[in-house]
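Record pair follows.
FIRST:
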Amino acid sequence: MRRYPELLSGAVLPEPSVFALDPAGGAQVMADLKPALGAAMAAGGPRAAVDAFLDYMCPGLWRAIDEAHREPYRANAGELLPDLQMPPYQVTPADLARVRVPCLIVKGDRSNPSLMRIAETIAASVSDAELLELAECGHVTYAEQPVAFASAVRAFAARLAPVNQR
């Protein structure tokens, strides 16, 4: 989006966890997660750590889905845990102000406060952005409110000009 905007007509960003836009919030998330993940790893290994992570970041989704639907998340433990150790993706509101494609930023009204602030910062920084808050929804907006999310994406996409007409 920043490097090759000519390839996009628009972008839908469901609560991106760009903690560089809320460093204090990101630090709090990591401070909350570290002991929970450590205890889960000690008790049950990487799969238990995935459970602890998702119960913290996505409690609405995690508590609503059955064991069979939890398995694909657990199977990706090898991706999640190293991801948490990476430095935050560095982007600033000034960087976002240079984005020239329309964006739909989606957040849940029951999400982590830091993720909600990040969504608000992105929406306020991108000149052609709209912010949508989904009711009774946490971080995983597309899974917790799939009908409302899909409807919003369809409506947004219908307003976009094709790439070759921009």
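SECOND:
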Amino acid sequence: MQLLVSVRSADEARRALDGGADIIDAKEPLAGALGAVSLPTFAEIVAAVASRRPVSAALGDLSDADLAEGQASAFARAGAAIVKVGFAGIASMSRLSAVIAAASRGAAAGGTGLVAVAYADALEANAFAPGVILEAAANAGAQGVLLDTFRKDAPSLFEWVTESWLTAWLRDAQARGLFTAVAGRLTIEDLARVMPLGADLVGVRGAACEGGRDGRISEARVQRLKAALRGPMHCTRPSADLLAASGRSGRRA
């Protein structure tokens, strides 16, 4: 299992890199579960990481297909190895499918792939259930799926779903050819519960920060998280392989 650490600046990216993060994820925590950083900030993060790690980009919850395609293309062309999009507020299946397809096209135009984000607390997000997002993502050309929590001031992932439910969801996604990631206010203690379930990536922000999610990335905390992922359950597919379909590894295009 690979470790994704969300950062808001080039300085935090360097701290996460030095701590051993496998993927550096650009995200502004003050802007919500999937808050996007600005393109100039994203360029600084990519430059700080250089060719040493892949960089992913959170683009927020998008409901307009044209905007989703444009944003996905812009961040992909700026160096994103994958782009992540959520769909809170979308009420129709036709709109959901159109937005996922548009974001996927935009990502592909920039030489990368889309990760469709589902929320365990879907009702809190006014979003479709995770199973619906998974099926729509597979049908619309996404490369992967992430199960996260929408509210960051509320219960963590395992207070919304059980291990057995999550295992089945992950297996369904992988059977459809999607790589899988989990996040949602996970702590270092939660990693022992996550590891046996079969996800390819685990994402953190608050657990890697001094002072919580809105604090600052700590190299020492990232090191401890990475160490917790080593051992008999260490596994599955390395991040470079997960991103191979997009034509990106740690090297900026």
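COMMENT: DSSP finds ten helices and ten strands in the chain.
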